Amino acid sequence: MISAVNGPALGSGVAIACASDIRIASTKASFILPEVNIGVMGGSAHVARFLPQGRARWMMYTGEPVSCEEAYRFGMVDKVVEPADLMAEARELALKIASKYPPAIRLAKAGLNGSEWLDLQAGYAYECELTVELRRDPGSAEVSRAFLEARTKR
Fold first, then answer.
1. Using one digit for the tens of pLDDT, what is the confidence trace for 104-143?
2. Are 102 and 72 within 8 A, CB to CB?
């Protein structure tokens, strides 16, 4: 899932953005967890994955925003663009990903999601399982052949 954030993302909006595979933000974007201001709780599991502990605590304890620039610096946002370019940028990325071999994208996502909390050795083992699964797919060999043929024509 690609999130395109064009303004303030509050509470669940921050959670949705953080749960996305890729986040693109406009220069107007900011990320705010205002829950502390209204006596509720939320967002810690998401922001703790992207922000240093001190910054995540500041954000959650004060309800103050994180700017798009700061979010980019910490890796919470993958790209920052002008507001007028945001949707075109998100569509272009979506089309680029959609042009790839679907089983490869599905297993790449499974590999990233599944190995996130594994140690390195277990992560490699999981990736090997997915690699074998993909290589058993009949279309995978064709995609590899097409890539190699295109490369030899250059």
1. 999 999 999 998 889 999 999 999 999 999 999 989 988 8
2. no
Q: Based on the number of CB atoms within 10 Å of its own CB, is 59 exposed (0-12), middle (13-18) or buried (19 or more)?
A: buried
The angle, 0 to 180 degrees and rounded to 10, between the axes of the packed helices 138-152 and 120-136 is: 90
| Neighbour tally for 34: CB within 10 Å | 18
Total Cβ atoms within 10 A of residue 154: 4
Question: Which of 1, 57, 76 lies closest to 67 in space, CA to CA?
Answer: 76
> Is the Cβ–Cβ distance between 18 and 78 less than 8 Å?
no
Strand partners, 27: none
Three-state DSSP state, 39: coil
Please name which of 107, 89, 102 lies closest in space to residue 143, comparing C-alpha atoms. 102
pLDDT recorded at residue 90: 98
pTM recorded for the entire structure: 0.84
**What CA–CA distance (Å, rounded) separates 47 from 113?**
17
Q: Tell me, which fold does domain 2-98 have in CATH?
A: 2-enoyl-CoA Hydratase; Chain A, domain 1 (3.90.226)
